[in-house]
Amino acid sequence: MKKNIFLLSLTIILFSCHKTETSNTKVETTTKKAIVKDTIKPAQNKNSSDTIACIDVVLEILTTAPSYAEGTKGLYEAVVKNGGTSFGITVEGSPNPERDKALDYSENYVLSLHETYPDRMPTIARYTFDPSKNELYEYNTAEDTLLPISFNKELLLKYRKVCK
Length: 164
Fold this sequence. Notes:
The protein is an alpha+beta fold. The protein has a domain at 52-164: Nuclear Transport Factor 2, Chain: A, CATH 3.10.450. It has six helices and six strands; from the N terminus they run ααααβαβββββα. The chain has helices at residues 2-16, 54-63, 66-72, 75-81, 97-100, 155-163; strands spanning 86-94, 104-105, 109-116, 123-130, 135-140, 145-149. A hairpin with a 4-residue loop joins strand 5 (135-140) and strand 6 (145-149). The relative contact order is 0.14.
């Protein structure tokens, strides 16, 4: 009886593990290179869809700063080469977090630059724009300090016009 059960079990295992045939037909594929950058979408003012918001000007101040431009030069290609999809800016703090779609309230605009991967979004740099001092800073993690960085001061006029 034990011999029959053993043979039956062995037969079931053999039939359940049989190799499936696959066809050797070639499927023609086309690869297209696309460049997509994950950046924050401009916040829309509820009063008018064609009006620029404060956060848009702050993002312009940051993204046109020479140190930001130098730091992100070639970043997209490096992220994709490492298995990522893009990089982007997160608004972590803002004087008006609901309007600016920020994560939290802050007297200053707190922005972080991150790389985007399927399983994580590591922050690689942090920036702060202080509207009361009209100054842009980069956060130095090693010294836990804000270092002023240069930016296009002409954008301060645009900021004052839009945000005051």
